[in-house]
């Protein structure tokens, strides 16, 4: 039987599920049971499932809805967490067999606890690239989760938040939480036709989660819509606009750097869908400014000549493991990428951090109150088979996949990845919208407006 595409079968969003509770058409317990059953069928997507907790939380939610006193707009909605977050009673594996032998967590990470306090129902923890150090999402230890609706499940899921993306793409949960160091929320969202929100680093509490590169790591939701991302943000304490009244796109300025297409090898179909998206913005009153951004060129040259500072931080964090006998148990592709930073001069990271601070200021001055638009990934999801066989090819494609998202990570921009269409094979393409550091509220407002006026 031919699989339905995500466009042919749209799963209910988190807010739609909550509305079905309010209307008495659905029940949190039954929704949780269905989610748990689906999660148990795909072990590469979920590394651990929390059935007792989920049913306990769902039963409490059902009672609140019966009384008409939900804790939040997402009370009773299933949620999944990338397996970097501590959840009481589960082992936090970071996608690693070495870490899977550690003791189970005794308490929830603060963000997980906050979500539960708002009534969300924890289904379990999702798979990822080992240590969250890959943009492609392959994992030889626990299996690579794939989207069955895209080319018969033969395409990479994107990483490192691979399981979070596939859990949403398969309709197991409407919202999954990921982390993003160099693009790990935006890339899997882009390759699976989802929406992903990379928050500025200080927005969410990241305590009691496993880091990769502490000054780059941030958190955010993957969902089907911007509206659900905004709902998640509201529930977790962000100050967001009312999703029922998004801002207008009239006279909003979007900056497009035309040099990015050739610099990063953006494919013709990704570029074509991106240009169509810009045309839709313009038809809805937005102003498109095409001009090169010097800060982007400087970041490109800096990474090319001196390396990715997040990689240096990742090596420092995992050095003791790399120097131990357990190093041979690490995915050799991840290990090679970590080891590439071993002999970098000791003062390099300090220099790169100084450059980073300067470029953040430069970028903020260059764009002012505008929003930058660019493709999220230069290509669509590549086939898995060749990448699994060829480590050199894997390394090249991984860098290409992350190249555009790394710009925002370097600058700590809030960013939203959202679909722009499909290529000739039906594979999703995506646009990335970015604003200057900590300007999350305006970005989310614009995302809502685009979803309402263009996508909707």
Provide structural commentary.
The structure is a single chain. About 40% of the residues lie in helices and about 15% in strands. It is α/β, with parallel strands linked by helices and about 450 residues long. It folds into two domains: about 15-235, Amidase signature (AS) enzymes (Alpha-Beta Complex); about 255-415 and about 425-455, Amidase signature (AS) domain (Amidase signature (AS) enzymes, Alpha-Beta Complex). It has an eleven-stranded mixed β-sheet with strand order 1-3-2-4-6-5-10-11-9-7-8, with helices on both faces. α2 packs antiparallel against α3 and α11 (about 310-320) packs across α12 (about 330-340).
Broad shape: globular
CATH top level assignment of the largest domain: Alpha Beta
Summarize the helix and strand pattern as letters. HHEHEHEHEHEEHEHHEHHHHEHHEEH
Q: Helical proportion? A: 40-55%
Q: How many H/I helical runs?
A: 16
Secondary-structure-based class equals alpha/beta
| CATH homology superfamily name of the largest domain | Amidase signature (AS) domain
The CATH topology of the largest domain is given as Amidase signature (AS) enzymes
Number of domains: 2
Give the radius of gyration: 21 Å
- Sheet with most strands: 11 strands, mixed
Which stretches are poorly predicted, pLDDT < 50 over at least 5 residues? 1-8
**How much of the sequence is in beta strands?**
5-15%
Q: Which architecture of the largest domain would the CATH scheme give at its second level? A: Alpha-Beta Complex
Kindly report the spatial arrangement of strands forming the biggest sheet: 1-3-2-4-6-5-10-11-9-7-8
Terminal Cα span: 30 Å
């Amino acid at each position: 039987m031919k699989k339905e595409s995500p466009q042919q079968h749209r799963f209910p969003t988190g807010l739609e599920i909550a509305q079905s509770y309010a209307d008495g058409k659905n029940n949190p317990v039954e929704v949780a049971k269905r989610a748990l059953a689906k999660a148990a069928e795909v072990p590469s997507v979920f590394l651990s499932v929390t059935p007792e907790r989920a049913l306990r939380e769902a039963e409490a939610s059902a009672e609140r809805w019966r009384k008409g006193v939900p804790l939040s707009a997402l009370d009773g909605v299933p949620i999944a967490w990338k397996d970097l977050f501590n959840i009481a009673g589960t082992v936090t594996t970071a996608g690693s067999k070495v870490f899977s032998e550690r003791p189970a967590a005794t308490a929830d990470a603060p963000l997980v606890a906050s979500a539960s306090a708002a009534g969300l129902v924890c289904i379990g923890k999702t798979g990822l690239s080992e240590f969250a150090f890959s943009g492609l999402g392959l994992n030889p230890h626990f299996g690579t989760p794939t989207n069955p609706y895209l080319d018969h499940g033969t395409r990479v899921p994107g990483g490192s938040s691979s399981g979070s993306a596939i859990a949403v793409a398969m309709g197991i949960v409407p919202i999954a939480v990921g982390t993003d160091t160099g693009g790990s929320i935006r890339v899997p969202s882009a390759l699976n036709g989802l929406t992903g929100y990379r928050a500025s680093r200080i927005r969410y509490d990241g305590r009691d989660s496993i880091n990769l590169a502490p000054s780059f790591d941030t958190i955010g939701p993957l969902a089907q819509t911007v509206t659900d991302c905004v709902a998640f943000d509201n529930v977790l304490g962000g100050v967001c606009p009312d999703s029922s009244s998004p801002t207008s796109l009239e006279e909003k300025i979007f900056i497009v750097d035309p040099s990015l297409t050739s610099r990063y090898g953006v494919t013709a179909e990704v570029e074509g869908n991106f240009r169509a998206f810009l045309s839709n913005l313009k038809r809805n009153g937005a102003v498109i400014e095409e001009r090169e951004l010097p800060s982007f060129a400087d970041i490109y040259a800096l990474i090319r000549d001196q390396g990715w500072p997040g990689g240096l931080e990742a090596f420092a964090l995992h050095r003791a493991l790399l120097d131990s006998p357990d190093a041979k148990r690490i995915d050799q592709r991840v290990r090679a990428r970590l080891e590439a930073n071993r002999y970098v001069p000791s003062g390099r990271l300090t220099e790169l951090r100084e450059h980073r601070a300067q470029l953040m200021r430069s970028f903020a001055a260059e764009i002012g109150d505008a929003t930058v638009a660019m493709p999220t990934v230069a290509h669509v999801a590549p086939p898995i088979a060749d990448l699994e066989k060829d480590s050199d090819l894997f390394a090249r494609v991984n860098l290409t996949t992350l190249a555009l998202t790394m710009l925002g990570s370097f600058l700590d921009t809030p960013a939203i990845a959202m679909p722009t269409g499909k290529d000739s094979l039906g594979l999703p393409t995506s646009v990335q919208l970015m604003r200057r550091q900590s300007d999350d509220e305006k970005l989310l407002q614009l995302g809502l407006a685009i979803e309402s006026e263009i996508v909707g």
